[in-house]
Amino acid sequence: EVQLVESGGGLVQPGGSLRLSCAASGFTFDNYEMNWVRQAPGKGLEWLSYISSSGSNIYYADSVKGRFTISRDNAKNSLYLHMHSLRAEDTAVYYCAKKGTVVGTIDYWGQGTLVTVSS
Amino acid sequence: QTVVTQEPSLTVSPGGTVTLTCASSTGAVTSGYFPNWFQQKPGQAPRSLIYSTRNKHSWTPARFSASLLGGKAALTLSGVQPEDEADYYCLLYYGGAQVFGGGTKLTVL
Prior knowledge:
The structure holds two protein chains of two kinds.
Chain A lengths: L2 E5 L2 E3 L5 E8 L8 E6 L5 E7 L6 E3 L7 E6 L4 E6 L8 E8 L6 E4 L3 E5 L2
Parallel strand pairs in A: 2-11
Antiparallel strand pairs in A: 1-3, 3-8, 4-5, 4-9, 5-6, 7-8, 9-10, 9-11
Chain B lengths: L3 E3 L2 E4 L4 E8 L11 E5 L6 E5 L3 E2 L7 E6 L2 E7 L7 E9 L2 E4 L3 E5 L1
Parallel strand pairs in B: 2-11
Antiparallel strand pairs in B: 1-3, 3-8, 4-5, 4-9, 5-6, 7-8, 9-10, 9-11
């Protein structure tokens, strides 16, 4: 059974930093591309970042480019999102999402971790 | 900035049929955008329903189908059930970047 478990969320002050983790199990992690997606309170889904299976290809949404860094440790079956210069508008539930075998496919989602940026 | 547009809200009667659409500000949606559709119920993580325009996951109920319609991606629910009341999001693939639509709140009434 595929499982994705996010952690690392919490309350952080504006301008602060946070690292989110996503622990993957139930599939061969290093064979699959991964994404981070967020959802602000009462709002829709926003794609944030993509990383290829080897980590060699990475893409970001303009809203987080230069502030967020995606990475992965295939030996630990883990995906990360390093977030810097956090703003109030970064307050959201952050989901990791597994890509499927077909191009452009997302198949499995984690349960999400809440990040609150507030003083 | 690429914008993906969905109907903000739709209402359907139980047992009825409804079609949700997904449009791209860049022009007609084609299979090359690999449209995905997701369902999200309150307090839950999204659930994947459709990938690559019209393909269902193993867990996707048969009453859900998808296609391209009039230059848009479309998700059709036939024989709507009360449990289908949810938010529905499309996702389009623009090379490396991906963009979600704003979501459609589907009410079953």
